[in-house]
Amino acid sequence: MSESRKGDTVMRRAVGIDFGGTVVKLALVNDLGQIERRTSFPTAETSGPDSWIERTAAALGDLGVASDSLPLHGQIVGIGVGVPGFTDFERGFIYSLTNVLGWTNVPLADLMAQRFGLRTRVDNDVNAMALGECAFGGGRKFRHAVFVTLGTGVGGGLLINGALYRGAYSMAGEIGHMSIDWRGVRSPRGVGELELYVGNRAIVSRTADAIRAGRPTALREKAGGEPDRLTPRDVAEAAAAGDALALEIFDYVAVCLATVFSSIVYCLQPEAIIVGGGVAQAGDVLFRPLQHHLVDRLAPEFAERIVVLPATLGPDAGVIGCAKLAMD
Amino acid sequence: MSESRKGDTVMRRAVGIDFGGTVVKLALVNDLGQIERRTSFPTAETSGPDSWIERTAAALGDLGVASDSLPLHGQIVGIGVGVPGFTDFERGFIYSLTNVLGWTNVPLADLMAQRFGLRTRVDNDVNAMALGECAFGGGRKFRHAVFVTLGTGVGGGLLINGALYRGAYSMAGEIGHMSIDWRGVRSPRGVGELELYVGNRAIVSRTADAIRAGRPTALREKAGGEPDRLTPRDVAEAAAAGDALALEIFDYVAVCLATVFSSIVYCLQPEAIIVGGGVAQAGDVLFRPLQHHLVDRLAPEFAERIVVLPATLGPDAGVIGCAKLAMD
Asked: What is the ipTM of this complex?
């Protein structure tokens, strides 16, 4: 993967489209990973592929790349789209989207190429974020890295030999479904999947249970009698302020994450694990115990060769990575 | 990875050396994966690199490839050595061997090249077995596969895009250290590592504990009052004969393996997992419950795209894979 740095000359640009369940973000991104223009529209303004593509056409107009007569068109190498669901990257095909209706078996890359005359790549949104972070963000120094995003769900992307690795059928990197307990919580995806222990819902429900059980904590007042309406950010803020329960919750999240991270290190031995997503915003209250428990769960020759780093592109990782998809 | 089939013409040959803790096996192997000549010597006949290389020189003489004057020399593309320990594949360097004294920080590839005038590659023994199985054995149809060997230890090798993937520092594929229980058995390698649940010792001690606890089983008579001297093969034979305890032991092994296999499938999504090693000789009593529990622990879209297959090269996987190392 080529690395672009500040000071280098911009040679190429692409459009990244981060297709989220709530909002569709579009950006004109250059090959230094810089966003030059951006726009967005609510996902709910569209209903299925046809109206989505027409709404996207208008948004591309906002970016100055909508039609052949506009000056930027010739400088755009293509469009990359990251979608929340299962895709076949080779064909640019969407099998289905997790939280968006009307998107089953859609040949989106072909439809986009027909409509806009631009080469289009379609990938899973977390793969796109991983690519963004590994090309321009927290992972840009590495050829072998694993990107993990922590939020409502837990997702991942694998960088192997400098390229995104999608597995045999474009579905690799589902870190959130890896098991941490062979006798653990059962779900339609298996037994003991990580996501059920460290996802947003797990963090909140574990906190709420402790409050209902009478544990003293500053979060009780914050919750105002409705502990289930707390957010992971509330818990992170309490932990940063030294609240014992909140620190304990993040230590638990860190142990569970460290268990899967140790398995990833023994299996793949990347140079780095890059951690992004909402829960990673917690910062030190997450990363400090995570580092501790990971070292505690690895043989020294593995522990001394792995680093865990926060993602650096924040909410822009998606659009930047999508654009990078189109540039590769 | 090129595939050679019966009926193809032999174009090249290499020497594979499977350096085990007990015996060193050498073979002249052609690029169809066929062994043309073989020899071996006890590891204990040597003490450290110098005497090992001299003993190897004699063994290469047995194979007809020891000196420049012998006819085969010109047809040998090189030597591949698989060793039981940590190596740096790029440099052909041995950091240390697990059960063989006198092998710390040895630049074996350089020493061999100097002594024999043949290009030499050095890799971890399980990587070599994985390469053998994926080039010529159970995995030869696949570009993305994971090889797992079950025995005293549990090891692994990763085939990614048709090539062995060694991770950032040549130490990837340590499947046996992946965790199946975040609150499980602690070891110097972590918490809940697979090997402590399904390695030879775990199988025997679990069986012995059940016998001592009074469980009815045909293995009681077989053990003759010393249940700790049973072998995994004894348990496998009892299971094949329908013994309830033995079947239960293999079901337990299968659940633990399926837990790690499900994590591997979610993370890497290979086409196949190839299972070899002594415990895999158990056959159906292992593979049947393994298949069942793996499907039970995967979402359907992953379960329907993964196959678990037995290794087919048996004890020859090592030498064949070592020779393949030298041919690549």
From this structure: 0.92
Residues B218 and B99 in one domain: no
Q: Do B301 and A171 touch (CB under 8 A)?
A: yes
Domain identity same for B171 and B43 = no
| pLDDT tens column, B39-55 | 999 999 999 999 999 99
Whether residue A258 sits in one domain with residue A152: yes
Q: Tell me the shortest Cα–Cα distance from B296 to chain A, in angstroms.
A: 7
- Angstrom distances, CA of residue B179 to CA of A300, B248, B264, B289: 16, 22, 11, 20
Number of domains in chain A: 2
Residue of A nearest to B264 (CA): A178
Q: What is the pTM of this model?
A: 0.92
Q: Kindly determine whether residue B168 and residue A299, on different chains, have CB atoms separated by under 8 Å.
A: no
For the segment A135-166, what is each residue's pLDDT rounded down to a tens digit? 999 999 999 999 999 998 899 999 999 999 99
How far apart (Å, rounded) are the C-alpha atoms in residues A217 and A243? 6
Q: Tell me the pLDDT tens digit for each residue of A56-71.
A: 999 999 998 865 545 5
Which residues of chain B are within 8 Å of residue A154 when distances are taken between CB atoms? none
B65 and B150 in one domain? no
Task: Note whether A268 contacts B268, CB cutoff 8 Å.
Answer: yes
- End-to-end CA separation in angstroms for chain A: 8
User: Is residue A60 in a domain?
Assistant: yes
DSSP assignment string, A293-310: HHHHTS-HHHHTT-EEEE
Instruction: Indicate the pLDDT class of residue B11, thresholds 50, 70 and 90.
Output: confident
Residues A93 and A210 in one domain: no
What domain range includes position B287? 141-312
How many other C-beta atoms lie within 10 A of the C-beta of residue A54?
A: 12
Q: Is residue B5 part of a domain?
A: no
Same structural domain, B101 and B113: yes
Split at pLDDT 50, 70, 90, the class of B4 is very low
Q: With contact defined as beta carbons under 8 Å apart, do B130 and B159 qualify?
A: yes
Q: In what order do the strands lie in the sheet with B93-97?
A: B85-88, B93-97, B104-106
- Based on the fold, state whether residues A213 and A98 are members of the same structural domain: no
Same structural domain for residues B59 and B100? yes
User: Chain B residue with minimal CA distance to A271?
Assistant: B168
Nearest-CA residue of chain B relative to A295? B190
Cβ–Cβ < 8 Å for A279, A206: no
Instruction: Verify whether the Cβ–Cβ distance B268 to A143 is below 8 Å.
Output: no
Is the pLDDT at B184 greater than 90? The verdict is yes
Q: Is residue B211 part of a domain?
A: yes
How far apart (Å, rounded) are the C-alpha atoms in residues A257 and A180? 9
CB atoms within 10 A of CB B186: 13
Answer yes or no: is A146 within a domain: yes
Which among B174, B256, B269 has CB closest to A169? Answer: B269
B6 pLDDT above the threshold of 60:
no
Residue A282 is part of a domain; what is its CATH number?
A: 3.30.420.40
Select from B166, B172, B178 the Cβ nearest to the Cβ of A263. Answer: B178
